[in-house]
Structures are given as C-alpha cells and as structure tokens.
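dumping this here so i dont lose it
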C-alpha cells in the first residue's frame, strides 16, 4: 500500500481532498493508495441526499461550517480538526471485497494499538456497540474509492447542531440521539490523535509517494466541480408525489415522482443508500409505467441489488406504491 503525501502542510478545504482521491484514481498508476486528512469544521453529505433533509443549513452558515457533497452514497457526516478522514483508492472492481478489505485494514490497525474495534452493519466500525467510523465508496472505470471518518475528540455540540438525521434511522439503531450512537477514540486510549494517525499509516502502508506541484494544480482543477453550487445543492424539480422508507440493510430511500393519470412521468431517487451501479437504469425503467405494484415489479431490472446495494424489486415497488 502506498501512502500519498502532499508536498507541503498547507491547510486545505474538504473539497480538495475529494478531488485528490479522484486524481489519484484517474491519473496515477498506483494500484493501492491511502491517505489521511483533516479539515476545519465541515459537513459532507452523500451523492443522492437532499441537503435540506440532512443539514441544518442556517446553523452551518451562521457558524462558518462549510457544506460539501461527495460522489459516494451513504449518509451525512461531520468533520473537524479533532477527527481524521481516511481515503483508500484501489484497482479492485469487486464492491464487497474492496469494502471489506478496507474496513478490516482499519479495524486491524486500531486493534494493534489496543482498541477493540469491530466491523458492523453495512459501513460502520464500532467500539462497544457505538460508531467510531462511517464509510462510503464509489466507482470510476477500473477503480474504487472508499473513504470515511475516524472520530477522536470531535466537537459533539457542533456535530449534532449541523446534522439533522432521520428519526427513523436513529430508532432503527436503538438510540435516541446522535451522541448516544457515537464513540470517540480518546475515551479508549491514552494516545494522541497524531500518534493514532501515524500508527494507522504504519500499519497499512509500506511506501510513500509525494505529489508534485503540477499534481496539485490538476487536483485544483478537479475541485472546481465539487465547489459549484449546482453540484452542492443539486437540481431539485418539483414532484407531485413523494414516498420515503427506511429499509434494513439498504438505507433510506426517498422517491420523488411526477405522476399524471396514474403513470410515472419522471422519478428521482434520494437517500443514504449505497449506489453500486447506474441509478438512471432504474429511473428509465420506471418512466412511462403505471404506478401499480405489479407493473413496477415487472419494470424494475432483475439486478437492482447491483445498482442499489442489497435492494430487492419487491422492496422498491413497496416504497413507490405505499398507500396506493
């Protein structure tokens, strides 16, 4: 594993590191790459999430907390200087193998320093039943990118004020608040954040690649997309019908549909689910179909679970046709 290092310690915003992941994946021939980064207070929400559902926008603006969208699925997370963000880029195309490999590398790195971490659920690393790391992934041709948080001494007041999680999501985990669900590394070790960071790097990586200034310029070019208002806020047209449900092992799916005379004219799918294929395949399959469960099931692709992880055709149809 190669550790990717920047040529200087200049402070950068979160969007730069998302662009850096993409640059390493697209423009380098490093088979397996890893790096750790930190940012000033920021929130980062998933590719398919609606910002107004996930983020307290007013609080963030008043308190100087930056808001960013990433290209991976999953839920909204908070980052600050008292936690770490981890990025893993690999040539593997196999989603489950790639994800499990990354999660277990991080779990093993934590166990080496005496922290009893465990993989749990679809994307979490837990300590004593509480979440210390949440992770997400996405593909570009021939490459996979996995990234996640690692909480050390995060500002919980700021985190809970910035993020507005779905009550159903919290209850599905048997907790009543974000704080009850979260673990902080500082409560399980005497090591400092910097010491843990160096230990993780040593555990996972065996060589280092330092990027050049010309690499930084190209990363900054990629970053422009992440900074555009269209990318961050999205294009949210009005729809006549909305359906929302949380599915165990899948996540929250929110379907917004334009329906005329019982026929689906347009549909958009939002939520914290993990996208492992082209969501437009689902959208195109449903356009022009009657909003009737049997017809929806028949129209959906048989490999829908390869597009939205763990999702079944019956489950998707039940979301769309609920109360009809």
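and the seq i came up w/
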């Amino acid at each position: 594993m190669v550790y990717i290092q920047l040529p200087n310690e200049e402070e950068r915003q979160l969007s730069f590191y998302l662009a850096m992941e993409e640059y390493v994946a697209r423009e380098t021939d490093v088979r397996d790459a890893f790096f750790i980064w930190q940012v000033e207070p920021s929130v980062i929400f998933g590719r398919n999430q609606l910002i107004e559902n996930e983020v307290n926008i007013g609080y963030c603006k008043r308190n100087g907390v930056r808001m960013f969208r990433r290209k991976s699925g999953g839920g909204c997370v908070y980052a600050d200087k008292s936690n770490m963000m981890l990025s893993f880029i690999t040539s593997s195309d196999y989603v489950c193998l790639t994800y499990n490999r990354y999660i277990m590398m991080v779990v093993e790195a934590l166990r080496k320093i005496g922290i009893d971490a465990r993989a749990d659920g679809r994307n979490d690393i837990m300590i004593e039943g509480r979440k210390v790391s949440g992770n997400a992934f996405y593909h570009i041709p021939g490459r996979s990118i996995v990234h996640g948080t690692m909480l050390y001494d995060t500002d919980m007041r700021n985190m809970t004020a910035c993020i507005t999680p779905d009550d159903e999501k919290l209850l599905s985990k048997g907790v009543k608040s974000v704080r009850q669900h979260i673990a902080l590394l500082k409560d399980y070790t005497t090591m400092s954040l910097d010491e843990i960071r160096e230990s993780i790097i040593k555990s996972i990586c065996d060589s280092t690649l330092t990027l050049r200034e010309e690499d930084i310029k190209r990363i900054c070019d990629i970053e422009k997309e992440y900074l555009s208002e269209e990318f961050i806020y999205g294009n949210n047209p009005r729809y006549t019908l909305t359906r929302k449900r949380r599915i165990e092992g899948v996540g929250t799916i929110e379907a917004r549909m334009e329906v005329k005379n019982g026929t689906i004219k347009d549909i958009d799918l939002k939520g914290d689910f993990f996208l492992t294929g082209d969501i437009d395949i689902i959208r195109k399959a449903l356009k022009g179909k009657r909003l009737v469960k049997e017809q929806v099931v028949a129209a959906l692709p048989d490999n829908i679970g390869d597009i939205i992880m763990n999702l079944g055709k019956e489950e998707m149809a039940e979301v769309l046709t609920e109360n009809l």
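The first strand starts at residue 2 and ends at 5.
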